[in-house]
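Dear U.,

For the methods section draft, I wanted the exact inputs and outputs in one place so we can describe them consistently. I've listed the two proteins in the order they'll appear in the manuscript figures. Please don't edit the token lines directly; just add comments below if something needs changing.

First protein:
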Amino acid sequence: MIEMNNVVKKYPNGVVAANGITVHIKKGEFVYIVGPSGAGKSTFIKLMYREEKPTSGDVIINGINLRTLKNNRVPHLRRHLGVVFQDFKLLPRLTVYENVAFAMEVIEEQPSVIRKRVMEVLELVGLKHKVRMLPNELSGGEQQRVAIARSIVNRPKVMIADEPTGNLDPETSWEIMNIFEEINRQGTTILMATHNREIVNTVRKRVIAIEGGMIVRDEYGGDYGYEN
């Protein structure tokens, strides 16, 4: 499902944020990306959805080589990826329903299909009763649930989450984590960059640790391994 083959990413300022990374992730896996600040985790994640292009090497998602992908095909690629950020990135003037539906409207899905699917995913994240509310009327945890619903509404094969619990309290973080686990059980491959030691150490999954732009540890059922 995901391959990185000898990937190097060097920024114009000389910083090497990925230094010969090679990794293969199978369909249906749940993978944590961990490491100290400045280790290269964000670059690793950005390479996955073509926010950044590798300087050399190949990033292949579901058979598509992102290094050679033309810029005008990037939006099409992202429609098949679910991406969740720490800061939610919701559209402030749209309701909960409209924020989620927007992801389907841009691919010109039929209104009846949109209505049915949006309500399905809002029920999954526990927000079916708040469809008419605006983002500023929701708690941080509820906003993240909307962001997750939006990211999965088009049934992506891969979901990429960059510090999805970073701005949330512990109880809410666990609620969000339970949603991710359910999405994974339904077959979606999940990559989650996180500093949440408790979640990584409690819900054991594959752990990829990055330091200095290199993978220094890759183990199944691993622990967090760093002091926060």
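Second protein (the one for the lower panel):
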Amino acid sequence: MTGIDEIVVQPPHTATWLVHIDRSMWVGGVRGLMLQALHPLAMRGVWQNSDFQEDPFGRLRRTADFVGRVTFSSPEEADEIGRRVRGIHRCLRVADPGTGRSHRVDDPELLLWVHCAEVSSYLEVARRGGLRITDAQADRYLGEQRRSATYVGLHEEDVPGSLGEMRDYFTGMRPSLRVIPESAATVRFLLWPRMPHDLRFLTPAKPAYFPFGALCYYTLPRWARRMYGVLPEVPRATVTAALRAFRLAMNSVPETVHDHAFMPGTRDMLAGARERLGGAGYDVSKGLKGLTDPRRWPSGLRPTG
């Protein structure tokens, strides 16, 4: 890769770049949280060890920061946030009121569920929203995400790395899933969240958020929506059309404007990625999103034929 892997964790020619630079990620992120909440122990782990009840939108932004850093930052930055996350998880426990047992938050089963719910949501939403990715590219994306899973403490060989493996994983997990009170509350929070302090200026526009939250909910698998039963069903075609309209609108927002949705540290990290890639010969005049066009890559990395 001509040394570009020493500049960013996932270079612009990877399938991960195509998915993670797409603005449909906002829908995929919330969908992922809703899906994760169906695992009782994983949900209680979040509930007992975070401020999710007070700031669910903040959880989404912190997740966006982690995903951004293990995608667009330097390998050193990715390693650092991985060590930080593993250190935090190592100290946390979750109490299971049904058995009275205490479990480690970094239990591999819980980490794997969170990972799979997250990355499958990103991929499913992006493809359904109109991002043109072949099945082979989707397999590559999931294979690349095995590396990302190591930052939270998983082993690559234990993580589904293809569409078929991911389907088999969810089929095997479904008997273990159910809606507990915390799960139901999570969906309600995500449909109508409290705004974090630095975004309180958006509070007057909060009613406009509900359609977004509903869109995230409706992109869940049918079996998951049946388990929740929070909103009445609508035609699949309607959801797909709404998702495509959202993606088109969000992808038209200038990168400098869009990045204000992130935490300050994330914005600094993205600015650093642009600087490093520009120094490596990439044309970053259209921002990081512009690098989905191979014509903006250094000549030695452009596809031939």
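Candidate sentences for the figure legend, describing the second protein: The chain has 14 helices and two strands. Residues 108-128 form the longest helix (21 residues).

Thanks,
Y.
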